[in-house]
Specification:
about 350 residues; alpha/beta; TIM Barrel; seven-stranded parallel β-sheet; two-stranded antiparallel sheet; about 45% helix; globular; binds coproporphyrinogen III; decarboxylase; Uroporphyrinogen_deCOase; Uroporphyrinogen decarboxylase
């Protein structure tokens, strides 16, 4: 066999990319931009590749994960890739009967409703994540200088799906369980923190250079309940990274009142939705953390002049933060014109190039 050609040496390493530098509050060449849910239904190339494959099967196929993760990077010129996967994948790999129903989200047949249910949940074995390691290694090789963000679902947000049995608005059963069964609650969130940490470590050890912990639904909690009953478990996920020196992004929706606490859980970067302007968010999280966000994803459905005005506003307000990673305030809506996303990435670069 001929010796394989050496891999091209990228001009910059992903670990020194603008994304990682902004996350650490270091100077950048321009504001890095990526979009939550940048891979997915807004892209025709995604819809055709995914046709006929169940979401959770696609997430466990390294070649499909690699291709879907790369699609938005090629198309939009964003400054980071985020692994194509899902927050419930560690639960599925552990053997829980979670499904993702198209247009609905994660559903589970037998929801967790008792102490016995919590104790019966199977644990995630790191050895079961070989497909993930393969996908991340392949991706990192293809991405060159572009950083790969690994991610996991935070214990609270995962608990909402397990307890409700599917998506919900109020998360009333989840909160009722939290209040009525504080010990079982704590055991459940401990278990979820352990599996989230295993999932993150697998991604970082295979080459992801930043991580995002999604606590999408934490905004339904009061600050006091969040601080006492949720934050310690989210912190345990970050602590599970040990000495791995990758920036930690921590995001939830409707978390205006929780922003300082979301930072305290161990974040280098606090993700902000569109409800609070970034200058106010910067005051709330303090000078030691960077911000990510926060263009309203619905703005992308409006006319170009509106998009431009809102992008400029977010960029200006982001200048008050220690560091700013431009993003949406939540995921890309499926009806979004992909051209609008490409335009936003270009405009952010144009407005911020030093
Ligand atoms: O591009 C990326 O952002 C990476 C991939 C990614 C997905 N899910 C792919 C996906 C990420 C980071 C997630 C995280 C995720 N999954 C979260 C946290 C982020 C957030 O939006 O707050 C949550 C709450 C979930 C649970 C989940 N999975 C939901 C609510 C849905 C949508 C259901 C639907 O069909 O509307 C999913 C399915 C899902 N995850 C899709 C994708 C691309 C759609 C599946 C499809 O294309 O058929």
């Amino acid at each position: 066999d001929p010796t394989p050609a050496p891999a091209p040496v990228p001009s910059t390493s992903p670990a020194e990319s603008d994304l990682v530098r902004a996350a650490r509050g270091l100077p950048v060449s321009r504001t890095p931009v990526w979009f939550m849910r940048q891979a997915g239904r807004s892209l025709p190339e995604y819809r055709s590749l995914r046709a006929g494959t169940v979401m959770l099967d696609a997430c466990q196929d390294p070649d499909m994960v690699t291709e879907i993760t790369l699609q938005p990077v090629r198309r939009h010129g964003v400054d980071a890739a985020i692994l194509f996967s899902d927050i419930v994948l560690p639960l599925v790999v552990a053997g829980m009967d979670v499904e993702i129903k198209p247009g609905i989200g994660p559903v589970i047949d037998k929801p967790v409703r008792s102490v016995a249910d919590v104790d019966a949940l199977p644990a995630l074995e790191p050895e079961a994540l070989g497909f993930l390691e393969t996908a991340v290694r392949q991706l990192v090789a293809e991405l060159g200088a572009t950083p790969l963000i690994g991610f996991a679902g935070a214990p609270f947000t995962l608990a909402t799906y397990l307890i409700e049995g599917g998506p919900s608005k109020e998360h009333a059963r989840t909160k009722a369980f939290m209040y009525a069964e504080p010990e079982a609650w704590s055991r459940l969130l401990d278990k979820l923190a352990v599996s989230a940490a295993i999932f993150l470590r697998a991604q970082v050890d295979a080459g992801a250079v930043a991580v995002q912990l999604f606590d999408s639904w934490a905004g339904v909690l009061s600050a006091a309940d969040y601080a006492e009953r949720v934050l310690p478990h989210s912190r345990a996920v970050f602590d599970g990274l040990g000495e791995r020196d990758v920036p930690r992004i921590h995001f939830g929706v409707g978390t205006g009142e929780l922003l300082p606490l979301i930072g305290d859980a161990g974040a280098d970067v606090v993700g902000v939705d569109w409800r609070i302007p970034l200058d106010e968010a910067a005051r709330r999280v303090g000078p030691n953390r960077s911000l990510q966000g926060n263009l309203d994803p619905a703005v992308l459905l409006a006319d170009r002049a509106t998009v431009d005005r809102e992008v400029r506003r977010v960029v200006e307000q982001g200048r008050t933060a220690r560091g700013h990673i431009f993003n949406l305030g939540h995921g890309v809506l499926p009806d979004t014109d992909p051209g609008a996303l490409t335009h936003v990435a270009e405009l952010v670069h144009e407005l911020t190039t030093r």
